[in-house]
């Protein structure tokens, strides 16, 4: 989907249409969840602080996220997908992989199917979508950003390697800013430059990821579309209006975060063993602390107790702007029956 959260807000509230819009955050603090294309022209991006975004775009309008509404529309879109294939692997509310090799419409053209699906999405939601069509998930993902917004790009089998060779390394899905900078230092600016490096060279500088880079630049990515994609973690977090320097106040915030996490876990009937506390300091540096329990948990009291223990594990470096609790090592990762440890008050 194209700028999904922001596009939903502009559709539901026509007075916001055409305006630079940020979903989440504020001009004082907080982090932006999404930005409209009007805001992106000023350099505003998701995960950017609201304060920084406002400096880049003084006319920026902030709105609160409405995740229930985004989920509602996401379900409509996903229903459309399933009319074409059962092999749908959701990545998030606004993105998914579809394998249409064998499809319910009997149409041998993936490009025509993508065009039809995008048309259906617009007719039923009023929102635009972009698509990438190719031989595997990696190339399709890269291609999906090529003609955004409201476009699509097909990379045929014979065109895969030339397409990847011509790309700036920053356009490769999975290569972030830090990795791109390191590649620049090694003289790797494009896919063609990356392709000249040996497997041994890439392993030396990038470890296991080097093996991945070696194959993807050659268009090799054998991961199938997984229709039953299982979450590896579930979490909740809060950014505070004012930085917190007292653990006592942090405990109060952790209680509400644990309550929200419990709600999410119960909704999906999930439990886990490893509790992770996420701490973001006032200088935007980040720290995580984890503890693995000998049993599965999902209730608020045990989540909160473990999070507090992690909070006091070591002294905080600075005042804190964000706290989060996540649970992984989930019971969704095993097939056998699990026992969830509950706590009873006596």
From TrEMBL:
Its EC number is 2.7.7.7. The record marks 5 as: Substrate discrimination. The active site is at residue 95. Keywords: Cytoplasm, DNA damage, DNA repair, DNA replication, DNA-binding, DNA-directed DNA polymerase, Magnesium, Metal-binding, Mutator protein, Nucleotidyltransferase, Transferase. Its main location: cytoplasm. Mg(2+) binds at residue 94. It is an enzyme of class 2 (transferase). Monomer. This is DNA polymerase IV. It comes from Flavobacterium lacus. The gene is dinB.
């Amino acid at each position: 989907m194209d700028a999904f959260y922001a596009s939903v807000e502009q559709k539901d509230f026509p007075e916001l249409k055409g305006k630079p819009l940020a979903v989440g955050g504020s001009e004082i603090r907080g982090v932006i969840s999404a930005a409209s294309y009007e805001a992106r022209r000023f350099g505003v991006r998701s995960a950017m602080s609201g304060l920084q975004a406002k400096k880049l775009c003084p006319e920026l309008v902030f709105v609160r996220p409405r995740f229930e509404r985004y989920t509602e529309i996401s379900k409509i879109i996903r229903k459309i997908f399933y009319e074409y294939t059962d092999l749908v692997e959701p990545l998030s509310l606004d993105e998914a992989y579809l394998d249409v090799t064998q499809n319910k419409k009997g149409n041998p053209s993936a490009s025509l199917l993508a065009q039809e699906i995008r048309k259906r999405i617009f007719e039923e939601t009023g929102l635009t979508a972009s698509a990438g069509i190719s031989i595997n998930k990696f190339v399709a993902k890269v291609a999906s950003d090529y003609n955004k917004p409201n476009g699509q790009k097909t990379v045929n089998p014979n065109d895969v390697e030339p397409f990847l060779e011509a790309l700036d390394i920053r356009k490769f899905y999975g290569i972030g800013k830090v990795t791109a900078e390191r590649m620049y230092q090694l003289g790797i600016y494009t896919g063609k430059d990356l392709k000249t490096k040996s497997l041994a060279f890439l392993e030396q500088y990038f470890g296991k990821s080097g093996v991945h880079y070696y194959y993807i630049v050659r268009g090799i990515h054998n991961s199938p579309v997984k229709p039953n994609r299982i979450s590896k973690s579930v979490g909740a977090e809060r950014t505070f209006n004012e930085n917190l320097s007292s653990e006592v106040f942090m405990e109060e915030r952790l209680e509400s975060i644990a309550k929200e996490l419990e709600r999410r876990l119960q909704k999906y009937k999930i439990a886990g063993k490893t509790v992770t506390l996420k701490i973001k300091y006032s200088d935007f540096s980040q720290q995580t602390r984890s503890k693995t329990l000998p049993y599965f948990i999902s209730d608020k009291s045990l989540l909160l107790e473990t999070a507090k223990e992690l909070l006091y594990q070591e002294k905080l470096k600075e005042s804190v702007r964000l706290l989060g609790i996540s649970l992984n090592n989930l019971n969704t990762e095993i097939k056998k029956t699990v026992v969830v440890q509950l706590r009873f008050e006596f």
